[in-house]
Design goal:
The chain is α/β, with parallel strands linked by helices. The chain has nine helices and eight strands. It has a six-stranded mixed beta sheet, with helices on both faces. The chain has a two-stranded antiparallel sheet with strand order 1-5. Helix 1 packs antiparallel against helix 5 and helix 5 crosses helix 6. The longest helix has 20 residues. The radius of gyration is 15 Å and the shape is globular. The protein binds uracil (URA). Uracil binds next to helix 4.
């Protein structure tokens, strides 16, 4: 399978999807990084900066995420970063219906990239990807195995920016992730 081409086809489909745009605005933010990535980072929905540029995680929380990624030795061109909801919700936060609809396209994106580890950033990512409501605060720093895939749960960087204690937990989760990736030979 030509992953790059499959992703381009899926992006075109999402661009034509009327439901994806309902109560939302800005450019579509599909995701970026390597189509062959072993590690995929999944957020919530684009913010204003992302909707203006069409790129995921380029605002304040994105800067924090990208610096944590770099600190544990991962290179941005070797990973994939995306969010399940592809447009900026009018209310700022996606509704349950937004998340459930986004899952249809997101599952295809995940199947094409087929990463070894999926890092779930916050509760919307957990809900959209695993399809169930799981407490981030109970599960963060842990690896969940489901349907033959491995998911590492952590806090959304926007929450880390808002609450200093959560930023510490996020940093400590990334160190756990680093240890895990080293054990799996996904990092030197
Ligand atoms: N927050 C997200 O969850 N995704 C983005 O792309 C930006 C901010």
């Amino acid at each position: 399978m030509n992953k790059k081409r499959e992703l381009e086809k899926l992006a075109k489909k999402i661009e034509q999807c009327v439901l994806c745009k309902e109560h939302k605005s800005g450019k579509m933010v599909f995701g970026e990084g390597s189509p062959n990535a072993s590690i995929m980072f999944v957020g919530e929905a684009p913010g204003k900066t992302e909707a203006a540029t069409g790129r995921p995680f380029v605002g304040r929380s994105g800067k924090l995420l990208r610096s944590l990624i770099q600190q544990i030795g991962l290179k941005e061109n070797e990973i994939y970063i995306t969010s399940p909801v592809k447009y900026l919700p009018d209310s700022g936060t996606p509704t349950k219906a937004d998340i459930m609809h986004a899952k249809i396209h997101f599952d295809k994106q995940l199947a094409i990239i087929d990463p070894k580890i999926i890092v779930l950033l916050g509760s919307v990512a957990l809900q959209a990807v695993l399809g169930e409501k799981i407490s981030v605060m109970k599960k963060h720093g842990e690896m969940i195995e489901k349907n033959g895939r491995k998911y590492f749960v952590t806090i959304h960087p926007a929450a880390g920016l808002r609450f200093p204690q959560l930023k510490k937990e996020l940093e400590s989760d990334f160190l756990k992730l680093q240890g895990y990736l080293q054990k799996e030979k996904l990092l030197p």
